[in-house]
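User: Run a structure prediction on this.
Assistant: Running it now.
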Amino acid sequence: MIATTWRLPDAPLRSSAVATKSIVLLAGVGLAAAARTGLPVGALYAVKAPLAFAVMMLLSLGYLQQHHPFARFGSANQITTVRALLVALVVCLIGEPRVPAIAASAAAASLAVALLDGVDGWLARRYGIASDFGARFDMEIDALLILALSLLVWRFGKAGAWVVASGALRYAFVATGLRWSWLRAPLPPSRRRQTICVVQIAALTLAIVPAVAPTVSTPLAAAALAALVWSFLVDTIWLWRHAV
């Protein structure tokens, strides 16, 4: 997630993390199966949603040891893991039938993710277990949710294809950093950046609600995207000015 070297963490951190991820995975199997019976999703949904979550957790596990200097996975990361499961459920709604029930479910799951956002950070600060891993884990989950929501908003005709830029912009920024190293330099903490992230999730979640007409969702998504572009521009200029 942060470094380029993936390796399993040592015990007892490994056991603590695997236990949390396994319990949440089992919950994900149950939720995906329930969605299969209650929503018009395809037969593979009950498999692909838990699988997507498992892949996410496997990737994150390999960067835990280097960036989480505590013996236990911790309550903050446990909350973020639950958020990751909800995001996996939303991601796997992409490609499912474009019916109101699917859109409403995506909005409900995204709302739950948003309500839990900040709880993990508060727990980390409250118990003195904040880490680079936890901060990046939280950010990656938010980024994936924004990408999934932007794709759903487009597929449901709530905005044009341009809305996908809301989710793709961050990944494009990271990819560009592979070419220009100064774009990979660490950025200072920013309340602006956190606020824009919340705005993105809120705007896209509202846009996908079935009762919200395209005449409302389109300008809403456009305004959120404009704010995101501005935020990335501010960060890019800062990095360029501080490049060595």
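The mean pLDDT is 93.
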